[in-house]
What we know:
9 strands, Rossmann fold, alpha/beta, globular
Amino acid sequence: xxxxxxxxxxxxxxxxxxxxxxxxxxxxxxxxxxxxxxxxxxxxxxxxxxxxxxxxxxxxxxxxxxxxxxxxxxxxxxxxxxxxxxxxxxxxxxxxxxxxxxxxxxxxxxxxxxxxxxxxxxxxxxxxxxxxxxxxxxxxxxxxxxxxxxxxxxxxxxxxxxxxxxxxxxxxxxxxxxxxxxxxxxxxxxxxxxxxxxxxxxxxxxxxxxxxxxxxxxx
Length: 219
C-alpha cells in the first residue's frame, strides 16, 4: 500500500460576496443639512454629481434659494434637488424612473425630514412637459450619459422655466453657445471637472410671463 500523503489540502476558495447595493454615499455640502450623508444605490449608470461640481454650482445659483420652485428631472441619488432644498427651496420635485432608486430617494427624504421635497416615479422629460408654463425657477438636467436625452430635455425645460430661471445641464462634453441658442438657451456658466461638463443656462427670450416666486423668494 502507498502511504497516505501528509500534505494538507488547500483551503476552499471563499465564495465571492454579492455586491452591496448601498456601498456609496453622497454628502450634502451646504444649507441646513450640511454634512448629512445619504446612501446611494449601486445602480448601473448612476453617477452622483461630484462634491466639487455641486459646490461650484450652488455658488453660481446662490446659497439662499428661499421660495424657489425646483425640479430634478433625472434625480438618481437626489443630490442636486436635496442640495436645493437644504438651501431653502420652497418646492423640490425629484423625478426618477428606476423603482429601486425611487425607494431610496424616499428614504433619504424621510431621513432629512425634507418636507418641501416630493418624489415621483416617472419620466423626467414628461414631467417637464406637464409642468405649468414658466413655473420653475431651477431645473436640474443630469440624464444618463448613454441615453442622449439632452436635446429633448432642453426643449421640454424651455416651456417650464420662469423668465428669471436657470437650468443646470450636466454632460460629457461642452455644449456650444450656438447649439444652445438654437434651443432657446444662453450659456451663463461652464465648468469642466474630469469627464463632466457642468453648464448653467438661462432662457434667451421669455416666451411666457413667469409665475411669481413663492412668498419670500429671491428675485
